Every structure is written in structure tokens, then in C-alpha cells.
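lol forgot to send this yesterday, sorry. C-alpha cells for the thing we talked abt
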């Protein structure tokens, strides 16, 4: 855990900028915690009690591996949890938020191809 924590601190500026140095192995970590508290948002009425209090957290781990001088493999996984207060239900989800090949200098200088799954938000 200590090694992952130190690697995450070292890679934090790269994640924040969304850029990676070509040919360099990078690893990153991100933790987000969010509290959602709302009432009457679904029916806009006090007739029924639809209050919801929940905590949502998302943990992301990603890495960029240079396979050759022109090809990088990028993989990112995330775990998202939702805990509703006053309920025994907890929702857990594990997914690949990104997984792609980045191929530079495909046939001509300046031509690049990315194939895979990307984060869109």
C-alpha cells in the first residue's frame, strides 16, 4: 500500500494534466468521496417521503505501459460504492473505465491511432 501511495503521489500531476510522457511507465490513483442528500427531487411533492441520504465513493487505479517505442497500453479500473443511510442496501460496482492502445507514428509522422474504451464525462 505504501508503494502504491507513493506512486500515486508521483503520478498525480500527470493525472491532473491528463498527459503522459511517451515511453514512460506511469501509475496513478484517485479517490473521490461524495455525499448526496435530497428530498422531493423525484416527485416535487411532500405527499410521499422520498428523502435520500447516501455516501458515494469511487476509487480509481490506472497505469500506462510502453510496449514499444510507438505503442502504449493504458488500463484504468474503478470501484464505485454507494451506501444509503437507513437502508441495508449497498451497491458495489467494479469496471474498466479505460483500456486502450495508443499507436503513434502509424504510417506517417503525426498520424496516431487510439483503439479501446475511453472515459467520457
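and heres what i got for the seq, position by position
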Amino acid at each position: 500500500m505504501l508503494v502504491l501511495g507513493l506512486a500515486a503521489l508521483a503520478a498525480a500531476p500527470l493525472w491532473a494534466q491528463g498527459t503522459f510522457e511517451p515511453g514512460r511507465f506511469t501509475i496513478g490513483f484517485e479517490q473521490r468521496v461524495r455525499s448526496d442528500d435530497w428530498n422531493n427531487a423525484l416527485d416535487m411533492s411532500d405527499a410521499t417521503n422520498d428523502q435520500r441520504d447516501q455516501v458515494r465513493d469511487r476509487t480509481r487505479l490506472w497505469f500506462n505501459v510502453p510496449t514499444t517505442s510507438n505503442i502504449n497500453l493504458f488500463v484504468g479500473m474503478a470501484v464505485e460504492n454507494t451506501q444509503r443511510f437507513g437502508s441495508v442496501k449497498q451497491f458495489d460496482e467494479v469496471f474498466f473505465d479505460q483500456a486502450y492502445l495508443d499507436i503513434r507514428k502509424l504510417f506517417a509522422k503525426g498520424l496516431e491511432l487510439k483503439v479501446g474504451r475511453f472515459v467520457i464525462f
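The mean pLDDT is 78. anyway ping me if u want another try
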